[in-house]
TrEMBL record:
One of its GO terms (biological process) is DNA-templated transcription. One of its GO terms (molecular function) is DNA-binding transcription factor activity. Pfam families: HTH_1, LysR_substrate. Keywords: DNA-binding, Transcription, Transcription regulation. Residues 3-60 form the HTH lysR-type domain. InterPro entries: LysR-type_TF_proteobact-type, LysR_HTH_N, LysR_subst-bd, WH-like_DNA-bd_sf, WH_DNA-bd_sf. Belongs to the LysR transcriptional regulatory family. The keyword DNA-binding applies. It comes from Sulfitobacter sabulilitoris. The lineage of its organism: Bacteria, Pseudomonadati, Pseudomonadota, Alphaproteobacteria, Rhodobacterales. This is LysR family transcriptional regulator. PANTHER family: HTH-TYPE TRANSCRIPTIONAL REGULATOR, TRANSCRIPTIONAL REGULATORY PROTEIN. It comes from the Bacteria.
Length: 298
């Protein structure tokens, strides 16, 4: 049987996601259709590629062997198109960005909207997840991270620093005495991350302040910001989020001032891809400018 690239592309998604549903979401294909395609591929190759169970699709030895060959083909396809010039100077196709939800909610929409206006045939997808993205599994074309990974065949570029401070809604401060020191926080309801769901040590803000109990906790920055905005308590907020949250102001600025950084992370195989490199350049420049603009308004 002749195995074409489309067969391999679908196989790669199922192998990496280890499920039809996960691969279907990535490919925008119905899982049942994807299952039929995999069955047809197995039939054509006269090999069982997956051990199927309620837990998902696990590769067999034959599947692992095909995965190695398929990844070689994937790299060859990327290399074949990497050096093609961008028609009319405009970007086309699809780009998927993985990002922590703070950046995904308060920065990327406006930055990517500007890029999209200049490139009307470009499709941009933002995957907002509170975890580290696996670019080796091609979960995204590139990712924004809050720390620089040291493992894997990745290219890492520091994009910009950003600031964070303790913040509270004026409605909360109207009902409770404003803290004058870190010690006073013990008398307040705090908002922060669920401790055992912090996916990067750079996000463990409250423990740096010696705070253990977090009465209002979420793995989502957006939920935390909304809790603060609704007067639920005091929490750490990105300065760039504050212009979007009227009624919230920074407190204890002379005692707590945090600085973190965003990194743009790409797969090493994509370095020569002119389209993705051009997009990465526009994205990094837009993020730097937007963080500076919003922090000046905070």
């Amino acid at each position: 049987m002749h195995t074409n690239w489309e067969d391999l592309r679908l196989f790669l998604a199922v192998a990496r996601e280890e499920s039809l549903s996960g691969a279907g979401k990535l490919l925008r294909l119905d899982p049942a259709t994807l299952g039929r395609r995999m069955a047809r591929l197995e039939e054509g190759l006269q090999a069982t590629l997956f051990a199927k169970s309620p837990q998902g699709y696990a590769l067999t030895d034959a599947g692992a062997e095909l995965l190695a060959r398929a990844e070689v083909a994937e790299q060859a396809m990327r290399a074949a198109t990497a050096g093609l010039p961008v028609p009319s100077g405009r970007l086309t196709g699809q780009v998927r960005i993985g990002a922590p939800d703070g950046a995904a909610n308060f920065l990327l929409p406006q930055v990517c909207a500007a890029i999209a206006r200049d490139n009307p045939d470009l499709d941009i997808q933002i995957v907002a997840l509170p975890r580290v993205f696996n670019l080796s599994r091609r979960e995204a074309d590139m990712a924004i991270g809050v720390s620089a990974p040291t493992a894997g065949r990745l290219v890492v570029q520091k994009v910009t620093d950003y600031k964070l401070h303790l913040a509270a809604a004026q409605t909360y401060l109207d009902r409770n005495p404003a803290p004058e020191s870190l010690a006073d926080l013990k008398a307040h309801r705090l908002v922060g991350y669920i401790p055992d769901m912090i996916f990067d040590r750079e996000l463990d803000y409250l423990s740096e302040m010696g705070i253990g109990r977090v009465p209002l906790a979420s793995n989502s920055v957006s939920v935390q910001i909304n809790w603060i905005r609704q007067g639920g308590g005091i929490g750490v907020a990105h300065d760039f989020s504050l212009p979007a949250t009227p009624g919230v102001r920074r407190i204890l600025m002379d005692q707590v001032s945090l600085r973190r950084a965003f990194y743009l992370i790409r797969h090493a195989d994509d370095q020569r891809n002119l389209r993705l490199s051009r997009f990465a350049e526009d994205l990094a420049g837009g993020l730097r400018a937007e963080v500076a603009r919003l922090e000046a308004l905070a």
